[in-house]
Amino acid sequence: MPPSRSNRTAPKKPSTADPKDAVRRQVPCESCPLRKRKVFRRFTADELAFVKTFKTGELTAEAGSMLFLEGASSAHLYTVLSGLAFRYKLLPDGRRQILNYCFPGDFLGLQGSVMEEMQHSIEALSDMVLCVFQREGLWRLFETHAGLSFDVTWLAARSEQILDQQLLSVGRRSAVERCAHLLLHLAQRADEVGLSSSPNKVRIPITQQHIADTLGLSLVHTNRTLGQLMRNRVVRWKEHEFEILNRERLAELAGYDIDLAVRPLL
Amino acid sequence: MPPSRSNRTAPKKPSTADPKDAVRRQVPCESCPLRKRKVFRRFTADELAFVKTFKTGELTAEAGSMLFLEGASSAHLYTVLSGLAFRYKLLPDGRRQILNYCFPGDFLGLQGSVMEEMQHSIEALSDMVLCVFQREGLWRLFETHAGLSFDVTWLAARSEQILDQQLLSVGRRSAVERCAHLLLHLAQRADEVGLSSSPNKVRIPITQQHIADTLGLSLVHTNRTLGQLMRNRVVRWKEHEFEILNRERLAELAGYDIDLAVRPLL
DNA sequence: CGCGACCTTGAGTAGGCTCAATGCCGGTGG
DNA sequence: CCACCGGCATTGAGCCTACTCAAGGTCGCG
């Protein structure tokens, strides 16, 4: 009865990344590699000092481990230092919808500060390193650092904006359009944070099942659709790395507004 | 070629609500009718005073007028005082995806403070009254009122959470499930802000085309699906007002987590 | 070598889409 | 007063996109 059930097997690693394992600071905030990227704004000395006190440690998460679990509550907030993850929701019968991907620089768990329990899960796609913050610190951040709290809001607004795009895709685009759009989106995000050697190459450890669950398609149909894109030499996909061979064509297929995409973020 | 084109005619009223027409305060913030509702937290005297200076006036918008236009930029932020609206995105060929509905108490236009241009449009469903704020005021708000800025973030996180649910629906639920879920969601939201005489009755001036564009379905199929729900006496729908006749059944159809739904907001 | 994780491909089905008409108001103008 | 029109809901018919079921195939690993 339910359409498009995600017929995937049980997660191989139900292991949960435990913040108690967090190591006490390894990358000092001053030399945070993320701060070099131009998508991020520069902190003032004061802000930097505060962030150092706000950060309680680092968490290393293995690929496949859970950062958040829907229905559970979490006392922590994270920032992605390195690695990738995805945020998703499940239906009781196992159908899965991936909501978005988490890249370095993303702020995770804000919703938990607002709801009792998490309304979504997050699973690491690769080994990750995360900065750990205490929820209570967030309130202190708002009280003492308007700039930073504005940033938090900025981040929230931006991720809402990405969700909007995703919803438009899933609701109104055809399978090819969705695939094309997703690939462009991922390429853009990866490029922003310097994850890709070239703006056209993206190394991201996802399976076609992930793509299917992102786009609201079945695994089989996703496979065929991607196959079509590959046969037409629009993209290439091998070993968890895909390459955009013909960006114009891909953008055309996606109905992607290029201008909109390359606007600087901050 | 494009599936599920929204074959609707051009909007009857391309008129844009112009903030220049905004009347200089009519409802004083002290007696804002919204503050009575228990979903909203109580302001301190200081916060109340600030909000009064932040608010620059009121805007009355006719049903059908545009509050925001995708691609345009706006110098204003709004809070819905009364009336309803919906937020949507269009594809170049006219397909439309409705992202969410805007209820009294909602904060509109935050994304514009973060992006250059709006990435979505908002259209009034009924005649509305909105409180108007200047964007610059927002920065001042963050600087001087941690509590209020936290609220803004709270609101943003909550609307992101609603988008998550919506994305799950559109991506992974069947047509009946989507309809059922949407109706429950609307009923809940309407009830929260006291829009409904009974928690089971919702007066909301939308057409089936709106529902279709919300759920990522075609108009015809939406009609049939709703028809099915009505034949089974699960809901009733007449004259822009629908009534939930059998909430248990509806929730069951939706796979809706009731517990999750009735949790108090603040 | 066997097993598990993933990708591919074929075949048949069905949920949802498009096209096209019809019916039902409520408003408007002759 | 009535004819007409526009906006909306409804229904029938036929089609097609995307789904399900079911095999393989490949590769890496214990």
If you had to describe this structure to a student in words, what would you say it looks like?
- 2 copies of one chain form a homodimer.
- Residues 1-13 and 258-266 of chain A have low confidence and may be disordered.
- The relative contact order of chain A is 0.14.
- In chain A, the strands form 3 sheets. Chain A has a 4-stranded antiparallel beta sheet with strand order 1-8-3-6. Chain A has a 4-stranded antiparallel beta sheet with strand order 2-7-4-5. In chain A, strands 9-11-10 form a 3-stranded antiparallel beta sheet.
- Chain A contains 8 helices and 11 strands.
- In chain A, helix 4 (175-192) packs across helix 7 and helix 5 crosses helix 6.
- Chain A has 266 residues and is of the alpha+beta class.
- In chain A, a hairpin with a 5-residue loop joins strand 4 and strand 5.
- Chain A has helices spanning 45-54, 135-144, 146-172, 175-192, 208-215, 219-231, 247-254, 258-262; strands at residues 55-61, 66-68, 76-82, 85-90, 96-102, 107-108, 121-124, 128-134, 201-203, 235-238, 241-244.
- Chains A and B meet through strand 5, helix 2 and helix 3 of A and strand 5, helix 2 and helix 3 of B.
- Chain A binds a DNA duplex (30 and 30 nucleotides) through residues 3-5, 7, 9, 12, 174-175, 207-209, 217-221, 223-225, 227.
Key phrases:
disordered C terminus, four-stranded antiparallel beta sheet, homodimer, 20% strand, alpha+beta, DNA-binding, 8 helices, 266 residues
Number of helices of chain A: 8
Return the structural class of chain A. alpha+beta
Cα shape of chain A:
globular
H and E order of chain A = HEEEEEEEEHHHEHHEEHH
Q: What profile does the largest beta sheet of chain A have?
A: 4 strands, antiparallel
Rounded mean pLDDT of chain A is 87
Distance between the termini of chain A: 46 Å
